[in-house]
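Why run this: before we spend reagent on co-expression, it is cheaper to look at a predicted model of the complex and decide which construct boundaries make sense. The entries below are exactly what would go into the expression plan.
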Amino acid sequence: MTGVEQSIGERVALWLRQLGVMTLKEFPQLVRDRPVFAYIVFIFTLDIIIAAGQSVELNNAKVVINDADQSMASRELTYRFRAPYFDVAETNLHPDIALSWLDRGQATLLIDIPPNFSESLYRGDEVATVQMLVDTSNANIGFLAASYGSRIAAELGTQFTAQRTASVTALPRIDNQRRVRFNADINESWFSSISELLAVITVACIFLPAVAMVREKERGTVEQLLVSPLSPFQVMFAKVLAMMTVMLIGTAFSLFVIMQPLFDVPARGSLALFFALTALYAFATAGIGMLAATFARNTAQLGMLLMLIVFPIILLSGLWVQLESMPTWLRQVMNLTPLRYFIDIAYGILLRGVDIAIIWDSVLKMTAIGIVLFGVALWRFRRQFGG
Amino acid sequence: MGETALVSEFRLAGKQPPHFTNQSIIKVEAFGKSYRKTVAVSDVNLEVRRGQLYGLLGPDGAGKSSLMKAVAGVMSFEAGNVGVFDVRLDSEAASETIKDRIGFMPQGLGLNLYPELSVEENIDFFARLRLVPEHELFERKQQLLAMTRLAPFRNRLMKKLSGGMKQKLGLICTLIHEPELLILDEPTTGVDPVSRRDFWIILSNLVRERGITALVTTAYMDEASRFHRISLMYEGKVLAEGEPERVCEMAEGSVVMLKSASQTQAIEVLRQVFPQVQPEGNWIRLFVDGAKAEEAVLQTRDAMGELTVNRVHAEETELEDAFTALLRHKGLTSLDEETTLGSVNMETNTESLNGIGIEALELTKNFGEFTAVDRVSFKVAEGEIFGLLGANGAGKTTVIKVLTGIMPASRGSGNVAGANLTHLGRAIKQRIGYMSQQFSLYTDLTVVENILLYAGIYGLRPVEARARCDWICTMAGLHSHINERTSRLPVGMRQRLALGCALVHRPRVLFLDEPTSGIDPIGRQRFWKILFQLSREEGVTVLVTTHYMSEAEHCDHLVLMHAGRLVADASPEVLKQEVETEVGRILELDSPHAKHALEHLAANGFNNPVMFGKHIHVWSKYPESDVVRISDLLGLEHAAIRVRDLSMDDVFVHRIRSLERPVSTVTEELMS
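The model came back. Tokens follow.
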């Protein structure tokens, strides 16, 4: 053959042509794999819609009240527990029955107003007691219900005090003036749909190229590729390239056809920058899957292995849980996942409209992690097949 | 209660010589089975009597497995009746009643076994599943383990056994409850010739000594003579039924072997007259329709005209010849309809390789402590078809992987297609084609997508790739299937496509690792026709491994591997010659009292007499005088004793056996 006399230009063209055919072959394979294809369509469409509807706010929490006081003050307190946060089911329930509601999970909050409530309030006792029992089997909802409840009670207390001491003017007060930035209506669907999109991108980028890789092993076609003049890099990178394309198409579809028309999610920064960095993220994250693919012998093994990796990454990288609320060691571990940086990048560009000058360090760290992961995967693949 | 009754009944049956009871064990009438709209089997009739070893032969997809499953009572069917032990299998309840009395081994190497359990644990599990009493289990287990030579491995995990050993363990597990009827679905597929022969010896002893009845399927046509009766199946129908010899006779005509100095021309000339012509090494094998032996030879000479005929003789029709002929006579196939090979027109770059296609120099490959390939050296001339034979795990695949550069050698070196293995790994890759043991195509891509993919991988430009695509489709007869997904093609066609893909870049050397397993004889003949043309006309060097010993005869040059070492290296003819001078030839004899005859022969110092279907085979160094001796000894007529030509199978088994002699002598003792 003439391999030796080829010019550099010809060799590059050949190299690209090989990478091209390897990448292109993935598309018909993916489309013909019906279950996988259906899954991809689902995660970039319906899944985003479902996720956008979910909320971490308190919605219609059932409240039962035992109002033994039956005064204007107690009624005022009852009145303040209202929609959309609370749903007062009963106001005059015997304490024992009210307690059984709580036991059966029919109510989240039980408020017991003692008979002398308004009396001690007007008298200006140091404390006017109201008992609040909270079902915290769902810690998040319980916590919110409790804190909203306390705030309502505290506000009421302050107002009564203000009324009573109206003559004694000039009680020091702080006027808290809020200016909400980036999401003026505090529209939760913005945050949750973007979070879900990032989660979905992560799952797709880890699973798809890894599955494509392990399938080659499983079916034995990898041997055929190894005796061909392809380099292991071309074999692996073609998978990443193909699945990166699929994922970018999915992301664009989610963003333009679902998130923007349905939920008015803004894209304040440069979209070109967003998609470029999403592609970079796809490469960085694919490294995780490719590395796992060098350990797994078949798709079943790969699936189990990736479950162990993907769930912690999505749960702990800061998508749903604040990084700051986690122990230091765990935070440091999460600093090694590309997703942790991509979260900053995606929210930054889409919601805060920042440009590369502000997020460049995240971009750099993400790229470095991606190169290391892919490099190790490539090294293991080479070693396994001795190429 | 019912259990003991069954056992004693079985014992009783076991004591009687099989031919006294002529009871029908399996009776299948007008059987038919469809999967959705595809008809798998239609209108099949067969009857198996007690003590028979009954074979179902045919290529993949002939409907053998469907029939087996129906007889085992594990599959429902639409048409006809299936009766086993006089029970009509028309309901699940009916099938339940016979399950204690049958043993069923499904297709696939050790698929019914548990890989994480040891040999003994597997046996115990199946015994307990079948409620075998513990005190009997111990004795049966000893007996079966000894018979199969697995006793030394009783604590080894199943997954660490070789293919042949797995199959033997599968047989033990099927036998542990002492069934009266054995149903074995392709027990020898993917198993090497030595293990296969072991398996048959064990099976025929069981049938003979215990009066067991067995229904067995196989894709190896050369195993036909192992059976008492066979049904030859093709595409869901029975093509022929009867004793193996009778079935061979049903294809009227004779096989002629011919040797000519101008082999390629001779083949071309003969193909114009006879429909079934194929090269076999330096020989040409052809089938002359409707002619007796002498007449067939004469017709062949006539057809050759002016071409030189070095040697010519008639030979016994083998089932493979008969199968092809029967299909042709019934108009079900024609050898040439699809592959119009006219000219291969490879336009190969004729860069010379200095006459050497492949050279291995002291190649060694270690996996940790284990030496898979041990100082293997051989030389393959350019344009030669070179066969690499050996049992499972002998190291054939590893040799190929090292030579193709999938794995580096631990020591030693080699030259492939004119490039050095250690220094020019990448250069080699452009010059070789490789078809792996596993299926090497993308089954979810279409024919044309596969070809263009491989063309791109080898850096062909689009125009060039299109031209090669055309050539491959012509070569493999795929023009009408070009946009079909590979998964929907028949196996034979897929293998030709895989071969085409391996040829897309016009390689000088071709590596084929078991390219024909599971393909029917006609598919294999087509495949070899292409290989032959590549080697003779294009000068492509072909290295091939195979378990079909009949294919080994097609090679110009063979090497035999055993336990990582090379143990023989010569042409098929020379290999046969060597064995013949060492141990002689095989005498085949029929005796009405087989057991008595076997004992007599062994007692009189004859070498290793064994049952081979209905016949007894015995080695003999001096065939002429031994025929007389044996006929006196057993009171047989001379005509009942035939001198058989050695087959490659005999050579292979003899060579390997002599290397593991110490163990096999033990087996013979145990079995007699």
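The interface with chain B takes residues 1, 3, 14, 17-18, 20-22, 25, 28-29, 32-33, 219-221, 223-230, 385-387 of chain A (CB under 8 Å). Chain A has two domains: 8-32+185-385, 61-164. Bring this page to Monday's planning discussion.
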